[in-house]
Amino acid sequence: MLALTSVWTTILLAAAVALGPLATDMYLPALPQIGSDFGAGTDQVQLTLSLYLAGFALAQLVCGPLADRFGRKPIMIGGLILFALASIGCAMATSIDTLMLCRFLQALGGSAGPVLGRATIRDIYRPREAARILAIVASIMALAPAVAPTLGGVLVSSLGWHSIFLVLGGYGLLMALIVAFGIPEPMRPEYRQPLRLCTLMRNYRRIGTDISFLGYTLTNALVYAGLFAFLSGSSFVLIEFLGVATEHFGLYFACMVVGYVVGNLAAVRLGRKLMPDQILLRGLVFAVAGGGLIAALALSGVYNVWAVILPQALFMVGTGMVLPQTMAGALANFPRMAGSASALFGFVQMATAAVAGVLVGYLHDGTSVVMATIIAICACAALASYLLLVQRHPAPGFEPQGASAS
């Protein structure tokens, strides 16, 4: 077993948290082919993404409390096994409806990796240190969306879209084995919560009425919704509208990942001299600038690949700075119920992103306008959430130095 604070434990947790991005990003290049094979429209194919997020969101509300009662490891292992079995079901799907059902089941299992990865980091580290570790984890797991679309494009071109889900199933089984035999249980026995409905409802009510938690969670969810709007629409905009070859899609997508990693590394570096909320504000400025630029270009009729990629890469720099700070801030007040707090955090994040994805699919007009506009709206709403909630109710130790003294 590895030590909980070892670098290898951090890497393995990043690999578990990366399950979510892998399950979405790897099959993005396959969306047009899936629609063609099943005779489904853009809105139906996009629904396989949004249903995944909906299942991901709902499962976390159960997964978190179970982990607070029984520990992180058994729930994570069970979730990873369910994810693997559902992935095989996706590969064997013979209709768009069957694929939707299996994607939903895949999400139920896949939620265990991210929600319990966040909770485990909160178990191991203090809040400010957790923000730094989460930024490092985000940088490591950024390898997943960097490689996933390219790998997915190659698999689609050579073996068909079914092979993507077989690879995901293998990854889920491998992660289940690594968690079972490589990482010790991180949760303190005295922190275990009773599994009673009244206790769960009381915990969720306490978490959900904490203004600091709401501020960080909404800010995170709105930025993530902007990211998911791009994930939902990018394959249709880049491949169908702008004519990017399926096997080249991942190379353009890698530009997004570079922006995200730059933001993560900037957050790690700035974390040595700035408070988390100061980093958060800088990240939101980048996100608003990128979102505003991509929308302005699309609304002006500037339709080319780089008018989408470069502004979105700027948005991703901001996203890479915002997400780790908001994750740590949301969990800061709840060391004894980190699983439940992480679950409610993830539910709001995924539900908001699912709404953005549905809007992109439903309103898609064959150009980049709808996708770009939703990204810009999400970025501006996230900044408003920060100014109205987070800035007024920062997490303990997250406020600027002068604020705590005043």
From TrEMBL:
Name of the protein: Bcr/CflA family efflux transporter
Membrane-spanning ranges: 45-63, 75-94, 100-121, 133-155, 161-183, 211-237, 249-267, 279-299, 305-323, 344-363, 369-389
Location of the Major facilitator superfamily (MFS) profile domain: 9-393
Family: Belongs to the major facilitator superfamily. Bcr/CmlA family.
SUPFAM superfamilies: MFS general substrate transporter (SSF103473)
Recorded topology in the membrane: Multi-pass membrane protein
Pfam families named among the record's database cross-references: MFS_1
Keyword terms of this UniProt record: Cell inner membrane, Cell membrane, Membrane, Transmembrane, Transmembrane helix, Transport
